[in-house]
Amino acid sequence: MRFFQTPPVLPWLFPKVWWKRPVQDKTIFLTFDDGPIPEVTPFLLEQLALYRAKATFFCVGENLIRYPEIAKKVATEGHRLANHTHQHVKAWKTPPQDYLRQVEQCQAALEQIGAGNNQVKLFRPPHGQITRAHLKLLQPDYQVVMWSMLTYDFDVTLPPQTCLEKAVTGIKPGAVVVMHDSLKADQNLRYVLPRLLRHFSEQGYSFKTL
Ligand SMILES: [Zn+2]
């Protein structure tokens, strides 16, 4: 079972988490998780630039340390860098204190490249896994961001046409859309992203950072 659109019960259970954003106009919030990596992130930047689209990148701390130049380029081009733990750990398998350390380590890596001093620190939990205990520790300092639309770009068994079709029919103003700058998602992403950008630009939408 694939949930392209977030089931309404989740925002109801976790109202402080961002699932989609209130907007007055046709705005979409694209987000890219797990990078930056040299194989995929530069391609995303090229595509986004063609449409003057801005996006939010939830980065893995280890990748920030490995590829600081790519991370800086993402920031320089007007996108927002945000926190996705240091080693992409799962909340359901990591005790809250250890998890917080992972988040703080990633935040330190963001600060290292000059991208950590936003007023609101955004954090997205890997795999969308969270518990109330983890939230309690995080929420004083971090705004937790989930999504309203998951493209399943990382699912190599899914035809890219299906990813695109689900995104095109499911995205509404204020949508928070998840894609991935990861090797697994590369194939679907190269098909979906250019078409998605073109489609929604033609419909009068703009793409902004969270
Ligand atoms: Zn992730």
Automatic annotation (TrEMBL):
Q: Which PROSITE patterns match?
A: NODB
The question of whether Metal-binding is a record keyword is answered with yes
Keyword Metal-binding attributed: yes
Q: Which UniProt keywords apply?
A: Hydrolase, Metal-binding
Q: Where is the signal peptide?
A: none
* GO MF: hydrolase activity, acting on carbon-nitrogen (but not peptide) bonds; metal ion binding
Residue stretches making up the NodB homology domain: 26-208
Example GO CC term: the record gives: membrane
- What's any GO biological process attached to this entry? carbohydrate metabolic process
- Cross-referenced Pfam families: Polysacc_deac_1
State the protein's name: Polysaccharide deacetylase
What organism is the protein native to? Rufibacter tibetensis
